[in-house]
Design brief:
about 55% helix
Amino acid sequence: MSITMQKGGLFTATFMTNGERFRAGGFTSEEAAQIWELQSRSNLKEGKPVTYPNAASSAVNKAQDLTLSHWLDKTYRVFWADASDPEKARHKMAELNAYFGSKRNINDITTEVIDVFISSLKSKGNANSTINRKLATLSKTLKYADECVQLRHAPKVHRQKEPLGRIRYVTPEEETQIMDTLDQWNLKDLKDSITVLIDTGLRRSELGRLTKQDVSQGMLSVWQAKNSTPRSVPMTARVKEVIERRMATAEQSKLFPKKAETLSHNWDRIRYHLKLDDVVLHSFRHTTASRLVQRGVSLATVQQWMGHKTIQMTLRYSHLSPKNLSDAVACLEA
């Protein structure tokens, strides 16, 4: 239990139960705040909702706009506007506004309400990974609003379990097939792009931001990365050939087409033609990491190369290195 005095001599009551926080303010006495807390705890035990006195409800940051749309927009401006793909955030924001209602008071978005939202997404066929991306947007918004204005309660967001799934990477044989087709179709930009993606592990958005100034001493510098940590990636001989050629002919500072839609559209034509439906542009990043591991590069080095924030991201590729297992079975047979 926590009873605190606000400005003006009013009291606020705050308590936690099962990891969820409840808060109400505007009580004229400490005793009134205590009574509200005791009644609220009793309601929760009986499966009833917590009720908020009108005075208490209106007293919580009267001057603040507590609508969901307001806090989604504020969160976007602070955290997502400068991200590598802000449109993804905007899309999720629009879906949250459509489901909950843009004028919904964020204090009314409880754990139970969020669980119903999850059930709704599952009924539409959303995968757990997709659901978690949407929950992350909602959770970040609620957390930021709470940091700024202290919500009445902090709901739990039940993230869904995600299977590891198969990491789709491109085999050398598939790569040869892809490059031959790109030559036949005269898709030079796409061939150059895929060559660099396969040999560097850059994300599509990172490729689109490469400039002449990012090339130095056989390295490509990535300044605006997904995890906000800059890194440099060495160039293979064929990447060096592509980069030097494009630097010599590029009219602007940008080395590759920035429009991701154009790159994706042309790649979709190729992958469907070659019946590589499950190979998306991000698969080429998986290809880089997979080949490094398969060819004996340490996981620590792979983590640094790929710019993974945690080693857990890199460990997804660890099973692709058979050498450790071969050494282990040799010990058993000794």
